[in-house]
């Protein structure tokens, strides 16, 4: 009996109102016993019905904006039932997706034949499969793509966006770009990183507004320095997106000369609004933007200006305590400065707020590393990498924790994993070279340092390590060349971080018997740090070699004041005193002979 169509008389007893069927006008529901027909004006009723349906679509959009997804699903389902319009079916699938009903949304889209002809339907169906972690089916749904002679990709299935949303924006991200990005995510989940890099690159090239693709390329270190610059130069920005091009240039690796990097930041921060068109007036607001200031803090950290970096990230985290990019830079700066209390507080807050994020346990590992409890730090670095295998700092910290205990094999294992996962990051390769150098395998160390230099040819730390290898191999001329090249790549003025490079250069010059130049660089090193034993010892020894025993004795004493148990300085001070006394005797003898006393 429930399958029978109700007659006119049974409808009359139901007492329907407009609230029961909001898509119908109240006049059409006035079912009384009159002799008038039910719909007196068909065209007028159809128009009113369309207006009511449009109002329901507005209700769905409003429910979505207020995150009332169950309500959105309910009304979207009714709209799709009333109209069978593909756009309304898409809206229903969107509501199901936002409500996390991924299986149902996929079934709805897949049941419609439109999914084979419309990119939006296919993309949303693939997004459902992404949430379900069914990566192979996701790639199958997205289909194949063809590459043209310029390296751009086009969907192999000749489909267009046939049914647009009812509330499309004036400016949208290219649907092809979104599809390329989703392909990249699927390949990355399947650990096919070369394909993931290709599709992320295709996504950002298809539409420079697809920031997520660039973020994945940068955060996962998929490109080298030169590849990042080449990619940015190939992007075709709209005339009104000049600010975006400048911003992207601040996001990539910042190993250029200080003047170049500072100019990039100043271009975004100090834009003169009065000389620019009205559509670029927004640029002046980026001066206090958190993302931009986080990039600047990252640059300070790379330059070795850790205190400056720490102060900036502290201000940023007061303004936005949950800005994770600022948080990771803040942790790194606190590590370098030895602020264990700050690391402890950061770790506690992160574990409380983000227990499932790798950065939280990385912060715990950094705290234990800072207080020299390397076994505990290694355990938490390992936990960070288990939560997120693409978290580069976790792998490097894992290797460093083993290296601090001189457990070279385990450290190398961590570094090799990081080098494999992050081909655009030179640090794992650099640390592998350092481990080989620690075991006096200088040839192998040199090979890995050259590989690191190929990945990032503008990092001064790589040149310093190449100089150290050359020095240990007794190639002092080559060592001087590498150290001088290091200083050329360091942003001026020099910070205390680079004091060791200046001392290394002075040592190499002393080995070449260029004593005057060596003394100049030793004195420069003392201007950067007055607590370095090797600087005082090297300077004293250089004066000693010049037979300047008085200055040599002075600096040996200063070195022993820092470390009274230093064997080299103790022995050389004794020799310097003997040499000075002999020199005094010889001078007295010659003076007496000249005066005829002997």
Give the helix level as a range of percent. Answer: 55-70%
Over the alpha carbons, how many angstroms does the gyration radius reach? 35 Å
Class inferred from helices and paired strands:
mainly alpha
Q: Quick check: average pLDDT?
A: 84
Describe the strand arrangement of the main beta sheet, using strand numbers.
1-2
Principal-axis shape equals elongated
Largest beta-sheet details: 2 strands, antiparallel
Beta-strand content estimate: under 5%
SS element count, helices: 30
Pfam family, one: ANAPC3
Protein name: Anaphase-promoting complex subunit 6
TPR repeats: 358-391, 499-532, 533-566
Keywords: Cell cycle, Cell division, Mitosis, Repeat, TPR repeat, Ubl conjugation pathway
Describe it for me?
The chain has 598 residues and is mainly α. Helix content is 68%, strand content 1%. It has 30 helices and 2 strands. A two-stranded antiparallel sheet has the order 1-2. Helix 17 packs antiparallel against helix 18, helix 20 runs antiparallel to helix 21 and helix 24 packs antiparallel against helix 25. The longest helix has 28 residues.
Task: For this entry, give a set of tags.
disordered N terminus; 2 strands; elongated; mitosis; 598 residues; two-stranded antiparallel sheet; mainly alpha; ubl conjugation pathway
């Amino acid at each position: 009996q429930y399958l029978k169509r109700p007659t006119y008389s049974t409808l009359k007893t139901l007492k329907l109102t407009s609230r029961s069927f909001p898509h119908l006008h109240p006049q059409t529901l006035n079912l009384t016993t009159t002799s008038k027909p039910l719909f007196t004006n068909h065209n007028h009723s159809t128009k009113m019905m369309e207006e009511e349906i449009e109002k329901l679509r507005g209700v769905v959009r409003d429910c979505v904006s207020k995150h009332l997804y169950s309500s959105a699903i309910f009304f979207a389902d009714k709209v799709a039932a009333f109209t069978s319009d593909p756009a309304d079916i898409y809206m229903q699938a969107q509501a199901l997706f936002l409500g996390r009903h991924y299986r149902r949304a996929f079934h709805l889209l897949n049941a419609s034949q439109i999914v084979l002809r419309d990119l939006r339907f296919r993309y949303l169906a693939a997004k459902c499969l992404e949430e379900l972690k069914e990566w192979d089916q996701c790639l199958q749904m997205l289909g194949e793509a063809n590459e043209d002679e310029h390296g751009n990709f086009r969907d192999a299935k000749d489909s267009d966006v046939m049914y647009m949303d009812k509330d499309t924006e004036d400016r949208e991200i290219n649907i092809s770009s979104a599809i390329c990005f989703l392909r990249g995510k699927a390949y990355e989940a399947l650990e096919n990183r070369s394909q993931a890099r290709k599709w992320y690159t295709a996504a950002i090239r298809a539409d420079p507004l697809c920031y997520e693709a660039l973020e994945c390329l940068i955060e996962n270190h998929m490109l080298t320095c030169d590849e990042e610059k080449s990619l940015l130069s190939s992007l075709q920005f709209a005339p009104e997106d000049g600010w975006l091009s400048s911003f992207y240039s601040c996001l990539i690796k910042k190993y250029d000369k200080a003047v170049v990097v500072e100019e990039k930041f100043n271009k975004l921060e100090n834009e003169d609004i009065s000389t620019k068109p009205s559509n670029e007036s927004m640029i002046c607001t980026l001066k206090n933007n958190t993302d931009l200031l986080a990039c600047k803090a990252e640059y300070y950290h790379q330059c070795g200006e850790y205190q400056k970096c720490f102060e900036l990230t502290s201000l940023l985290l007061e303004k936005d305590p949950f800005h994770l990019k600022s948080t990771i830079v803040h942790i790194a700066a606190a590590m370098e400065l030895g602020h264990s209390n700050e690391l402890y507080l950061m770790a506690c807050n992160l574990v409380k707020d983000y227990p499932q994020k790798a950065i939280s346990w990385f912060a715990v590992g950094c705290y234990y590393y800072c207080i020299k409890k390397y076994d505990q730090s290694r355990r938490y670095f390992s936990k960070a990498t288990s939560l997120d295998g693409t978290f580069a700092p976790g792998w490097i910290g894992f290797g460093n924790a083993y290296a601090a205990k001189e457990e070279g094999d385990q450290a190398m294992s961590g570094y090799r994993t990081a080098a494999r996962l992050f081909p655009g990051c030179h640090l794992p390769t650099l640390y592998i070279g350092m481990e080989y150098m620690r075991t006096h395998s200088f040839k192998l160390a040199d090979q890995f340092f050259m590989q690191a230099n190929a990945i990032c040819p503008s990092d001064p730390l790589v040149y310093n390590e190449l100089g150290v290898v050359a020095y240990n191999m007794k190639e002092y001329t080559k060592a001087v060349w590498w150290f001088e090249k290091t200083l050329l790549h360091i942003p001026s003025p020099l910070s205390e971080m680079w004091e060791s490079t200046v001392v290394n250069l002075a040592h190499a010059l002393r080995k070449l018997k260029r004593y005057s130049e060596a003394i100049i660089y030793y004195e420069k090193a003392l201007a950067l740090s007055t607590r370095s034993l090797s600087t005082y010892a090297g300077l004293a020894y250089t004066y000693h070699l010049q037979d300047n025993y008085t200055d040599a004795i002075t600096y040996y004493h200063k070195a022993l004041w820092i470390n009274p148990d230093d064997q080299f300085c103790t022995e050389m001070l004794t020799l310097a005193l003997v040499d000075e006394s002999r020199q005094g005797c010889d001078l007295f003898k010659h003076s007496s002979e000249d005066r005829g006393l002997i």
